[in-house]
Write a structure and sequence with these properties.
With 591 residues, the protein is of the alpha+beta class. It is built from 16 helices and 31 strands. 51% of the residues are buried. It binds oxalic acid and manganese (II) ion.
Length: 591
C-alpha cells in the first residue's frame, strides 16, 4: 500500500524480531473492518451484541490483570534522565531498546501482524500527524479504527514523509513484563504485555499526549489532556472552552453537557468538539485555536445514564465496542453500574462469571457487574451534540481554559486566575483524588499538573516553561479558570449538583471573558459574587449554598501553598515565574 521506505523498513525489522505468520495492512475499508469483526467474534475476542438493539456493537473482556493504564510501568525513555520528570519513570533509551528487544523476540509467532496507518486529526490537515502502529491485536485494530482515521488514505497523505512509530504486542499479557515505553527523541512508542486501551491504542495517550507534548514543545504548540466544547448563545454566537480534568473526573460529561431547562428555553446549546485531548496552536489572529485529534470517544461507562449524560449514552447505541461491562444474556445487551436500576437478572460480569444485580461479596457489599474503569469506544459522528467544527482543520478559538480536579474541600466551585502566568501556576498546582482509570489506590489526593502528570513526554518544569512561553506568543490569550464540582458536605455528599448544571458556572466563566460580570478579589484569584451564579430552577441550592461553595478558608489554603511548595521541590527546572507566583500567593494569604 506504500513505497515509503521508512514504513517498509519498520515492518521488515518488526517481522525479523517478532516472527509473525503474516502481515495484514489495515486499509480502512468497511469490508475489511467487517471481516476483522467477524474473525474477532470467531476467535472469542469480541461478543456480538443484539444487532437489533445495538447495531454494530460488540463486547470485549480483558484479562483481569489488565484493566487500566499502568503508570508504574509507563516510561519516558531519553538519553538524559533530566529530560524526563522526577515524578515519571525514566529509562535510558539504549537500555530500554535492549530490554524491549529481548521481550519482543518471537512474541508474534503464529500470529498476524497488523499494520495500522493512522492520522491524528483530519486526514491531510497541516496540523495533523501520522502514526504507524504495528500490533498483533485485532482488538487494537478495531478500536484504533474508531478512535482515529485509519487506512490507505493516510498512507496517500504520508507519501515519503515521517511518522511516529508504534509497536505493540500483547505478548503473554504478563504483568511483570508489561512496559509502555516512549522515546520522544525518536518519535517512537513501544508497548508490550497489555491489551488495555490507554496502554495499547498508541494514537491516544502515547502519541497524542506524550509524544505530541514533546513535539509541541519543540515546534511551538501544545498537546493537552483537555475536552473542547462550544457554548452557543441564543443569538447564535458560539464561544469555546478547553478544560483539563484528570482521568475519570467527568470530561466526557462536561463535553456533552445538556443545559438545564431554563437555559434551553432561552436557546442556549452546548456542542462537543472533543472529550479528552486538545492540540492547541496560535492562530493568525493571535488567539489560541484548539483541535481534537481523535475521531471517537473512549469513555468510562459506569455512571453514564439518561440523566448524567444522555448524549454519551446515545453515542454508544451503534458501532461501539464495550470493554469490561456486564452482559445481559437475556437480551444480548450490556449493563454497568449507574446505567439504570434494572441490572440483568441473567447476566455475566466483566470477569465472565454468571452474575445478577443482587449478588453480594463475603463482606456483604454488592458484586460489581462492570469494572469501575469499563469503557465504550464510540465513533464521534454518533454524538448528537457533535460540533459542526469537529472536522475544522484550523480548530476553534478558545475564550477560556479551565482546570479542575476532584477535591472534597479546599478548591471553591470556580475561580479565575489573575493573569496568564498566574493561570499557569493554578494549572501547575492542580490536585485531585485518584480514580480507577489507572491502577493503584483510588481516592488519594495527588498533584496532577494540568491533568498531565501521567502524560507529559518530557521534563515537567520544562513543560511549565513552555506554557509560559506560549502565553508570550498570544496577543489575546484565553482567560484561565479553576473549577471544582466535587466539594462535599460534612456527611460526604456532593453539594453542587454538577452535570448539566455546570452550565451555570460556564456561563459565569464566559461572562468574565467578556468583562460582563464583576468578581470578588481573593488571595487565590477572582471568585464570583454568589448571586451571579444563576440558580434559577435549581432545587435545594440557595444563594447561601453557593456562598458556601465559593468560600476560601485561609488556613486550608496556607496548607495548600505548603503542599504546592513541597511538590515543586519534587520537580526540577520549575520556572522562576511560578516560584514567584507561589511566593505572592503566600504573601496574600498572610496579609
Ligand atoms: C483516558 C484516561 O482513558 O485518561 O482518557 O485514562
Ligand atoms: Mn483521558
Amino acid at each position: 500500500m506504500t513505497s515509503n521506505k521508512k514504513v517498509l523498513a519498520f515492518i521488515e525489522e518488526t517481522k525479523a524480531l517478532c516472527d509473525p505468520k503474516e502481515v495484514v495492512w489495515v486499509d480502512g475499508s468497511e469490508a475489511q473492518l467487517e471481516a476483522f469483526r467477524k474473525q474477532a467474534v470467531e476467535e472469542g475476542i469480541l461478543i456480538k451484541l443484539n444487532q437489533d438493539l445495538l447495531p454494530g456493537c460488540y463486547l470485549h473482556r480483558t484479562t483481569q490483570n489488565d484493566v487500566a493504564r499502568v503508570e508504574g510501568r509507563t516510561y519516558i525513555c531519553s538519553k538524559n534522565k533530566d529530560d524526563s520528570s522526577p515524578i515519571n519513570n525514566w529509562m535510558e533509551s539504549g537500555e530500554a531498546y535492549d530490554m524491549l528487544k529481548k521481550l519482543f523476540k518471537g512474541c508474534m509467532k503464529g500470529r498476524t501482524l497488523y499494520v495500522i496507518p493512522y492520522s491524528m486529526g483530519a486526514v491531510g490537515s497541516k496540523f495533523s500527524k501520522i502514526g504507524i502502529e504495528l500490533t498483533d491485536s485485532i482488538y487494537v485494530v478495531l478500536n484504533m479504527a474508531i478512535l482515529s482515521r485509519v487506512g490507505r488514505k493516510v498512507l496517500d497523505v504520508l507519501g515519503d514523509g515521517d511518522f511516529v512509530k508504534g509497536l505493540h504486542s500483547y505478548a503473554e499479557l504478563s504483568e511483570e513484563k508489561r512496559y509502555i515505553c516512549h522515546f520522544p527523541e525518536d518519535d517512537t512508542i513501544i508497548s508490550i504485555n497489555s491489551n488495555y486501551g490507554g496502554n495499547v491504542l498508541l494514537g491516544k495517550k502515547c502519541f497524542a499526549l506524550r509524544i505530541a507534548s514533546y513535539l509541541g514543545k519543540t515546534e511551538g504548540w501544545m498537546a493537552e489532556h483537555m475536552l473542547i466544547l462550544g457554548v452557543e448563545y441564543p443569538n447564535g454566537e458560539t464561544k469555546y472552552i478547553a478544560a483539563a480534568f484528570p482521568s475519570a473526573c467527568g470530561k466526557t460529561n462536561l463535553a456533552m453537557l445538556i443545559p438545564p431547562e431554563v437555559y434551553k428555553k432561552k436557546g442556549y446549546k452546548v456542542w462537543c468538539v472533543g472529550d479528552d485531548i486538545a492540540w492547541i496552536r496560535v492562530g493568525a489572529d493571535g488567539r489560541l485555536y484548539a483541535v481534537n485529534p481523535e475521531n471517537g470517544f473512549f469513555g468510562v461507562a459506569p455512571g453514564t445514564n439518561e440523566k448524567s449524560n444522555p448524549n454519551a449514552l446515545h453515542t454508544t447505541q451503534k458501532n461501539t465496542i464495550f470493554t469490561n461491562v456486564a452482559y445481559n444474556a437475556d437480551n444480548g445487551t450490556v449493563w454497568w453500574e449507574g446505567l439504570d436500576k434494572n441490572p440483568p437478572k441473567n447476566g455475566i460480569d466483566w470477569k465472565g462469571n454468571p452474575w445478577n444485580g443482587d449478588m453480594k461479596d463475603a463482606e456483604g457489599k454488592p458484586v460489581k457487574g462492570a469494572h469501575p474503569n469499563s469503557r465504550f469506544t464510540a465513533p464521534a459522528v454518533n454524538c448528537p451534540c457533535l460540533s459542526k467544527e469537529f472536522e475544522n482543520p484550523d480548530g476553534v478559538p478558545l475564550s477560556a481554559i479551565v482546570f479542575g480536579g476532584r477535591r472534597a474541600k479546599t478548591a471553591p466551585l470556580v475561580y479565575q486566575s489573575t493573569s496568564w502566568n498566574n493561570g499557569v501556576f493554578v494549572g501547575s498546582s492542580m490536585a485531585s483524588e485518584t480514580t480507577a482509570a489507572a491502577t493503584g489506590a483510588v481516592g488519594v489526593v495527588r498533584r496532577d499538573p494540568m491533568a498531565m502528570r501521567p502524560f507529559v513526554g518530557y521534563n515537567m518544569g520544562d513543560y511549565f516553561a513552555h506554557w509560559i512561553e506560549m502565553g508570550k506568543k498570544v496577543k489575546n490569550p484565553p482567560k484561565i479558570f479553576n473549577v471544582n464540582w466535587f466539594r462535599t458536605d460534612d456527611e460526604g455528599h456532593f453539594i453542587w449538583p454538577g452535570f448539566g448544571d455546570n452550565m451555570r458556572v460556564l456561563e459565569w466563566i464566559l461572562a468574565r471573558c467578556e468583562d460582563k460580570v464583576d468578581a470578588v478579589e481573593t488571595p487565590i484569584g477572582y471568585v464570583p459574587k454568589a448571586e451571579d451564579i444563576n440558580i434559577e430552577g435549581l432545587d435545594g441550592i440557595t444563594v447561601d449554598t453557593v456562598k458556601g461553595l465559593l468560600e476560601i478558608d485561609k488556613n486550608t489554603w496556607k496548607e495548600e501553598a505548603d503542599g504546592i511548595e513541597k511538590f515543586y521541590g519534587e520537580l526540577t527546572r520549575v520556572p522562576q515565574e511560578l516560584k514567584d507566583e507561589l511566593a505572592a500567593l503566600k504573601k496574600r494569604l498572610d496579609a
